[in-house]
Amino acid sequence: MKKAKNAKSPTSTIRVVDDKRHDLSDWRFPMLSHLRALIRQADPEVVEEVKWRKPSNGMKGVPVWSHGGIICTGETYKAVVKLTFAHGASLPDPAGLFNSSLEGKTRRAIDFHDGDTVDEKAFTALIRAAVSLNTKASVVGRPSRFPKKPKASSA
Fold first, then answer.
1. Which helix (H) or strand (E) holds 134?
2. Looking at the chain, which terminus has fewer C-beta neighbours within 10 angstroms, N or C?
3. pTM across the whole model
């Protein structure tokens, strides 16, 4: 398994998620930990990183799960634990898990509230669909932002 460039070890992400235990003395830490475990079960090859460390998040950063590209990020707010799927608009969601950021053309999110239960089967399917989308895109190759123009033939 290849590690992403500058990828942090899984223990770095565990530490970030565990560090939140001190900040989150309520339902949010167990929810984030449960979602992390489901992601790892759905894709044992997932790469866990911490990105976007900045003063506004206490320099702790944001947990990011990737495989062939970003699958999702996990953030905690006062009333929700939010998982944002990088390419959620392209994913099938027959169970209707996406309930946030629905207006965008690329991303979709799931807001988990206090007392919510996770549809583990549907969530696992969503993670696997995101991995499949990412890995298909990397196998086929992503189109260049600036495709080369054909050279004019000299006659």
1. helix 120-140
2. C
3. 0.75
